[in-house]
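Recall from the previous lesson that a structure prediction takes nothing but the amino acid sequence as input. Here we apply that procedure to Cell wall hydrolase from Cohnella yongneupensis. The sequence below is the only information supplied.
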Amino acid sequence: MSLVQKMKKRIGKPMLVAIGALLLSATIPLTAVAAQEKVTEAENVKIELDGQTIKLADPIREKADRLYLPVAQLAKMFGAKVDWDAKNEEATIDTKYGDRIVLGNGVPVVYFNDARYIMDAFPFETDGRMYVPLRDAAELLHAKVSWNDEERTAVLESVPLAVVTEELGLAEISKQVGSSPKELLKRNELDSEDAIVTGKKLRVVIPSLMDHAAKPFTDKDRLLLAKITQVEAGDESYESQLAVANVILNRVKNPQFPDTIKDVIYSGKQFPPAHNGLLDRSVPQADALRAAKDALNGKSNVEDAVYFYNPKVSKGEFWASLTVIDTIGSHRYAK
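The prediction returns the following tokens.
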């Protein structure tokens, strides 16, 4: 069998038709409501990798018509290494093909090499395991995914790197894998076709989430958000600090308020520390830095709240007129 035939067999192999929505449905954007959807064990569902049924030590989970697997076990299936950061609830995956993936508990944005993308479902933690959406995670691990509805089986196909030869160049590989040369260059972090030389190995699975780049933010914005979060809720839980950070970001998105983090914080009377010097002197601690980063990456626990207040301090007709979304720590979060 020639190299071209092998490539066609391994990479151009037709996928099973994805009949069920169980595996491949998508919901963007993600909100606190989605985070609260029920997690159940997926009954009578099997995982198959390269024709072999995989036995998992932990149950397969289902949430909002999506399948989830424990990140450590899924990574191991593809020869990847996982480092778990318990403090920040982040899993860093180094794949066998040199990619780095960073996934956060409840965070819709994934860091993939030097870029950030929005997943159509986000990881969650249960029973001491972090579960990740099967389709997104498998594609990041350089595999193809399909759903066999008749056998209720998620079918995973690991995909080898394509090797450039004199007969098999970028154009030929692009045709075989169904991606454009431009997409393959981007996937391999290459600026031009000049780098496509004989012997070059190319990643050819283009994760679908690469069509959904996350909105960028600056280190300056993150630090400012962390500083105001520290001042307003630094003596409370991470959840409280996440809520404060999200109120500010919700205001940025709301046309009734300024459209930048800085302008939201420094305008009006909601944030007195911005005007009395406390904000300037604020030194954000680990939880505030994490809350700011997670909020900027789309994790929210207060939906569209644009106000927060301590009911023991803030009283009156205005505060009583608001719709309270949640109470976390000493603050109520409202709109």
